[in-house]
Design brief:
- By secondary structure, the protein is mainly alpha-helical.
- The protein has 2 domains: 300 residues, Hypothetical protein af1432 (Orthogonal Bundle), CATH 1.10.3210.10; 77 residues, no CATH class.
- 60% of the residues lie in helices and 1% in strands.
- It is built from 19 helices and 2 strands.
- The longest helix has 24 residues.
- The N and C termini lie far apart (63 Å).
């Protein structure tokens, strides 16, 4: 492709940015962690980030990671990959309506949960306990997502995603609802400092704010994507009935996932268009808070029994000790060498503690692989 044709293609990629809102993040504002020079590249940086994310090994593992319910015999229950796609679609709908950058929005959405552990939030909580005890550091999936893209993917070289995408991923926390989401401008250095602080302070890790409007859109879209869909999954396996959702919530948001998603998207668009923030009406925001409270009490807290959680905790704790011992003894036949460390570069090996290596390995596992490793290394070795 000659230079003249290359420039035409580049302009075609960027045409849709001509009509974006003054609050949108443009491609020429993209900042990479490490500057790149590729005169033959035709893709805008945020569009390029989407490709880097979906072609990464970690993205493939989404399809066998828990959303809410683990190891249920029902092929229609959501996995993490479905949730991520729903977040992407919802966020892109809002972004298009508000004339924001859809490429940046999609990249954040597709990458936001990549740091999730096997067994969903239960696994995350258990690994956080291990990390605080062994490393004195917080483990949260949003932090681990950024770590994956900076320090683990591509053999330890990272994917060199843009700061705007990494920041949106770090700040996506969909467990915290707010009536208004206002972006907080940051430099690359400020983002990096915030990321480092997240390992030491739970409140910072939970309450960091996105630097872009697109990051704010993904943050609220994360909640929209899981609330209604998790209700449908819970009804599907008879954890709740549709009429269990309080009438006052259903009157505002609707009764089905379709109605809930549609109500929330329309309300956000109507209250945010032409404004430098993302906002809901008071009525809808109140109903959203109540629906989230209902989900936690009647779905998430009932997704696993105390016995099941104790079993998973034993699995994590035991595998942590098994693999840490493998590293100390240089057991190169171990899974942690064969399926993880042998693919990492020299920098990762030299600059990562053994305990951190084990946590990175466990965090990246799929549900099935996690239990297979436990049964192979612990159960079968005893029997």
């Amino acid at each position: 492709m000659d230079q003249e044709m290359l420039e035409v293609v580049k302009r075609n990629f960027l045409k849709k940015e001509e009509g974006l809102s003054s609050y949108a993040t443009l491609s020429n504002e993209a900042i990479r962690m490490t500057e790149e020079q590729d005169d033959k590249e035709i893709r805008p940086p945020f569009f390029h980030d989407i490709d880097r994310i979906i072609h990464a090994w970690s993205y493939t593992r989404y399809m066998n990671k828990t959303q809410v319910f683990s190891f249920r015999q029902n092929d229609h229950l959501s996995k993490r990959i479905i949730h991520v796609q729903l977040v992407s679609k919802i966020a892109r709908t809002i972004a298009r309506a508000l004339a924001l950058n859809e490429d940046l929005t999609e990249a954040i959405a597709l990458g936001h949960d990549i740091g999730h552990t096997p067994i969903g939030h239960v696994g995350e909580s258990i690994l956080n306990d291990i990390s605080k005890r062994e490393l004195g550091e917080i483990f949260q999936h949003n932090i681990q997502s950024v770590r994956t893209y900076i320090e683990l993917e591509n053999h330890g070289n990272g994917l060199n995603l843009t700061v705007q995408v990494l920041d949106g991923i770090l700040c996506h926390n969909g467990e915290i609802e707010e009536p208004c989401y206002v972006p907080v401008p940051k430099t690359k250095e400020e983002f990096w400092q915030e990321y480092q602080k997240c390992y030491k302070n739970t409140e910072i890790a939970r309450k960091v704010r996105p630097m872009t409007m697109e990051g704010c859109v993904v943050r609220i879209s994360d909640m929209i994507a899981y609330l209604g869909r998790d209700i449908e999954d819970a009804i599907n396996i008879r954890v709740i009935r549709r009429q269990d959702v309080p009438e006052e919530i259903r009157q505002v948001l609707g009764s089905t996932n379709r109605e809930i998603v549609n109500t929330l998207i329309r309300d956000i668009i109507c209250n945010s268009i032409g404004k430098p923030y993302i906002q809901m009406s008071d009525r809808v925001y109140k109903a959203l808070k109540e629906l989230k409270k209902f989900n936690y009490e009647h779905i998430y807290h009932k997704a696993n029994t105390e016995e099941t959680i104790a079993y998973y905790r034993n699995c994590f704790e035991t595998l942590f000790q098994v693999y840490y011992q493998d590293l100390e003894q240089q057991n190169t036949k171990s899974e942690i060498f064969r399926n993880f460390l042998n693919q990492k570069n020299e920098y990762y090996h030299k600059n990562t503690s053994d305990k951190r290596k084990v946590i990175d390995f466990l965090a990246g596992m799929t549900d099935d692989y996690f239990l297979q490793c436990y049964k192979k290394r612990v159960v079968e070795s005893v029997s």
